[in-house]
Recover the amino acids of this structure.
């Protein structure tokens, strides 16, 4: 699984930073809550990569292991279930 995309939040007081594999991502935040939001954004960004669609083979930006079809095929799949 894509555990490499996991980030962690480190800091204290009014300085919180998002880390990934020991590297700081972006600027420190002054509130833990803000760092949490930032961590979510980074996690999504880090797990995104180009994959080939399972249905048509087109390259598209996948945001995770459960996201394996391009937008056009996802639309088709939704339509087929109705
Ligand atoms: Zn497709």
């Amino acid at each position: 699984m894509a555990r490499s995309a996991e980030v962690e939040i480190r800091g204290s007081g009014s300085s919180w930073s998002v880390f990934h594999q020991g590297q700081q991502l972006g600027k420190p935040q002054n509130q833990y809550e803000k760092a949490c939001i930032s961590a979510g954004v980074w996690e999504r960004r880090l797990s995104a990569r180009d994959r080939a669609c399972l249905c048509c083979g087109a390259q598209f930006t996948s945001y995770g292991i459960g996201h394996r079809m391009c937008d056009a095929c996802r639309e088709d799949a939704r339509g087929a279930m109705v």
